[in-house]
Description:
Distance between the termini: 88 Å
Amino acid sequence: MGSLDVGIRRGGLGNTSRRDAWWLYPSSVFLGLTAFVVYATWAALQGNYFYFHNYLSPFYSPLLFWSHGGIHSWFGVPPHWLVNISPALLILWAPGGFRVSCYYYRGAYYKSHWADPPACAVGEPRLKYRGERRFPLILQNVHRYFMYIAVFFIFILGKDAWDAMWFRTASGGREFGIGVGTLVLLLNVVLLAGYTFGCHSLRHLIGGGRDKLSSQPGHACAYRCVTKLNERHMTWAWFSLFWVAFSDLYVRLCAMGIWHDWRILR
């Protein structure tokens, strides 16, 4: 039987036989992530309008150093070499590192921003596949360590949501209340918790190293809960990403006097 050698020609960027709208997903991710990064960078560099009465922007929480505006920071007045640095820059590396190294976000921005590849069966601009076992992508393995910090941040933001329920009175005391900003910050915690507690690394930590979870009811229950959240990890990732930006925007516009915070319950 005769044989026929068929040469395989490597396609260039975007070269594909697909006829569907394969470009729609990476394009949407590119616009969404770029918009968030631009806004978050701008907001973090401002260093002002990040609190409004008992509301604190999640971009600036925890507030390590600050000495103005009636909000008590963790460590009081900043040292002289930190005076001109925005408080957000001291803490955003933690949630930022968790997001950047997230398993879902890796697959998302590898396609959208690096075109590596832009979609299945679509040509990419590289000739070799190096994976994540070499520098610099091997640094993505720090995700499992950022996960511990991200869990800690959930409790901090939960405390901020609790503080958002207590409003100062004319006599200098505090009274319980619910404002629109309270609900905004509370929903922010819920969405971030859904994203964080559905993390692949957390799921592995709870049940990945055990052969028989049924013999450990506590671990089995926690594993099922994390797995349930992990099934919608992409949804939690996107909703929490944009809501944390909206939370900062809400506090910022209230602090600037552009928006008025409506008290729902006094």
